[in-house]
Amino acid sequence: MNIFKAMKPERVYTNAKQIPWVSLKSEGINVALLDFDNTLGPDHATAPTEFSFECVKEIQEAGIRCCLVSNAKSGRSAGIAKVLDIPCVTYARKPEPIGVRRALDLMKAQPGEAVMVGDQIFTDVIAGNLAGVRTFMVEKLYRKEIWYVAVKRIPEKLVRLIARF
To answer: Residue ranges of the alpha helices (H) in the chain?
Structure first.
C-alpha cells in the first residue's frame, strides 16, 4: 500500500458522537474498533468519562459491537474496557496492523465489517488502513497530551495539509 494512502482516513469527524453509526450499520459495519486516549477520553486516563460511556452506548444502540484497541502495554486500557463492558486489545502496536487484526479475530469479524476510529494518523489511521478496515479520524478531545504524542502532531499537520483532510 502506498504510504500516503495508508495515512489518509476515509472520513474525519469532530468526535465519535458525530459519526453516523446507524447509517454505518446499514452499510454493513458491525464492529467499531476504538482508540481511547483523546478519542473516547483524556490522554492517559485511568477511567472512562461520561463522554466515553455515551459514545459506546450510541454505537451499541445502532447495533454495532465495540472493541477498544490500545497501544497501552499496562492494564490501564483493559481496566477502562472492563468498566465500559467491551472487549479490548492491549499493546496493539499501532501503526502495525497486528492489533487491529487481533481485534477482528476477537470480534469474529472480517475487515469489511469494521471501522477503526482514532485521533492519530501515525497510529490509528495507518494501522486500520493496513489491516483493510475503514478508518475514521476524529479530532483530539483534549489539548493535554503526553509529550511524544504532541511531537507527532507537527508532522500530522503537514500530512493533513498535503492530503487535504
So the answer is: 3-6, 21-26, 50-61, 76-84, 98-107, 126-131, 147-163
